[in-house]
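User: I'll paste a sequence; please echo it back and then give the predicted structure.

Assistant: Echoing your sequence first, then the prediction.
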Amino acid sequence: MTVLKGGKMGSLSGAMGNIVLVSYGNTTYLRSMPTYSKNSWTPKQVQSRKRFAIVTQFCMAHKRNVIVPIWNLLPGNACGYSQFLGANIKAFDSLGNIKDHGLLHFSEGFLEPPSHVATVKEGELLTVSWTNDPNTAAARLKDGLLYMALSGDKVSGPFTTGLTRCMMGGEFTLPDSSARALYLFFAAPDRKAFSSDRYVTF
């Protein structure tokens, strides 16, 4: 599209076919529209595109169960998907492999997260304890403890534990005995608010 812009005589700016017109000051420049092929990218750019594609696939796998119900509630101009991607991309190396599962995050929000978490695992049974801030509001003591489970390199959930913040601990059964780490976080009873998560290994 060609656009006529300011000045008595006006100036052209835009594209006509494969020609691009660019006005700078009182001068209009014509240049060819760049074309790209598979050979246009450097090896580093190709690898970066592959890495981003892998991270995008990871985000899409958690869109329905994590991004929509949790991250879409976060304030700000960025959508929940963008915030989730931004929070997790640093966990991936240049080849798209997860370099540190402890850098992944599945929950975020303004609620107070679990503190001083301790766990003991026996098969599929997990005993967990945490501490609460003495100034925690009474209404927040009803927040439920949820988690994502890491088994092998796969993260699944969220799962409920049946435990609430006021209990400061308890037992629950893991989805399977191969779980090697959890991402623990609190959720309001109405699931309209969440805390950030805490990564714990066994």
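The chain has three helices and eleven strands. Helices lie at 43-61, 63-67, 80-88.
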